[in-house]
Design goal:
Layout (H helix, E strand, L loop, with lengths): L1 H22 L7 E3 L2 E7 L4 H9 L10 E7 L3 E9 L7 E9 L4 E9 L6 H12 L4 E7 L2
Antiparallel strand pairs: 1-6, 2-6, 2-7, 3-4, 4-5, 5-6
């Protein structure tokens, strides 16, 4: 029930953020997409444990960016994290973890909207947080 509620909240939030972005080019007036992504590889038998670890609401994934939901299909999984800096939700840092099923490789991408906050501290914080999971391999790759 909690998962359904979280997914419904995520869907409502995404609709609320996507619609203005589609209808107005200036919605995200400033921001950046990091050219660097973090590729995290876990042991195949630990894939589901890692997903559970990422979705934990006990500790943010990076600084103030916390788990907000996930989207899943037959061959993919996408987990989203967000830090909002203003009451309207226009100023934010987003982190996405993408996984092609059944792979145990997760690509973390970083982007900002209407903020001057640097993405580097978020990349470092994600690196530190995922190493808390245990035996993981982390490499920097070109963001897609």
């Amino acid at each position: 029930m909690r998962a359904i509620r979280c997914n419904m909240l995520l869907a409502l939030a995404l609709v609320g953020w996507i619609q203005p972005a589609v209808s107005s080019q200036s919605y995200c007036a400033t921001g950046e997409v990091s050219p660097i992504a973090l590729r995290v590889t876990v042991r195949p038998e630990r894939r589901q444990d890692f997903i559970t670890f990422l979705q934990s609401d006990k500790e943010p994934i990076a600084l103030g960016a916390s788990y907000v939901g996930r989207a899943e299909g037959a061959d993919f999984l996408s987990i989203s994290f967000l830090e909002i800096f203003d009451a309207k939700g226009a100023s934010k840092i987003s982190i996405g973890a993408k996984n092609k099923k059944p792979s145990s490789v997760f690509d973390f991408s970083f982007w900002s909207c209407n903020t001057t906050h640097s993405l580097e501290p978020y990349q470092k914080a994600v690196r530190n947080r995922v190493t808390q999971f245990g035996a993981v391999s982390i490499e920097e790759v070109v963001s897609q």
